[in-house]
Amino acid sequence: MIGKFNHVAIVVPDIDAARIIYRDILGAKVSGVEDYPDHGVRVVCVELPNTVIELMTPLDEDSPVANFLKRSPAGGIHHICLEVEDIIEARNRLRAEGVRILGDGEPKTGAHGKPVLFAHPKDLCGTLIEIEEA
Ligand code: CO
Q: Is the Cα torsion angle 36, 119, 82, 96 positive or negative in sign?
């Protein structure tokens, strides 16, 4: 069911500082800073030859990642994103196996314009996993 690795998302306290670290210290190709108000995050994409790292920071206190930063003020890995061919089929299979899907269980449009869902980390080895139809 699971296809390609799509991206890893890292929450950071200072998106501009993180962008410069990845660009100037790690020598990576980085995007500009973009706001995604629907998701409550500000994002920089780091493009690697084989994958993408998404650096993100909360837009405000209500952001879904604001609490993450309270628990881990220095930032850290927030989720990984794996691709599936059919997100509804994937959701139904996960649910049938007892994996909880976050929110109302209906796919949302992710930062790449594709349908995404998140599965409960307690049901998948302690890792928040985003599945994206690709
Ligand atoms: Co993501």
A: negative
Distance 77 CA to ligand 1 centre (A): 11
CATH number of the domain at 18, please: 3.10.180.10
**Residue-number span of the structural domain to which 125 is assigned:** 2-133
- Please state the domain count of the chain: 1
Write out pLDDT tens, residues 32-52. Answer: 999 999 889 999 999 999 999
Q: What does pTM read for this prediction?
A: 0.93
User: How far away, in angstroms, is 25 Cα from ligand 1 center?
Assistant: 24
Cα 57 to Cα 5, 36, 87, distances in angstroms:
22, 10, 26
